User: What shape does this take?
Amino acid sequence: MDLFNHDYQLPTGLDQRLELVARRILFTRKYTMRLLEGLSDDQWFWKPEAYPTHVAWQVGHIAMSHYGLTLFRVRGRTTEDRALLPGKYRKLFLKGTVADAPREAYPSPAELLETLERIRQQTFAELSGFAERLDEATEPPHTSFGTKFGSLLFVSDHEMLHAGQIGMLRRLMGKEPVG
Assistant: This one.
């Protein structure tokens, strides 16, 4: 699968609120992928001295957060989730971690992209089943939202925040902005 073809499909049969969630996720993911397109493996791990992150950390964090905000917070953890998000992602990409591990500790850019896509696909596969849970409170609680619908909406906001950091890294590399 060519992850850079940007030909993502919107799930069908969604109620109005879930269609909004899906459209927001797709819009943001397309933008993120445009930022990542054309970066070399070395550029994924490049970290300017005064900037405590690199592209690989940003993408790993987006993947882990997407899982946490959609699947985990809405329906809880399942045994199948281990195949979606490898255990090492928590240690490397949890909120508050920094990109200071040796490069070899991180998944490759290809693995990060595959994980990101797998989680998006699983989210869309399950999205229609979330309709009855949208107004339920999230567990664990979050300061930015109180319901499962809020958690689903926050996915795209959170990714866009990290896309901005990827965009800044690109600019620091001397690359043109992505419009």
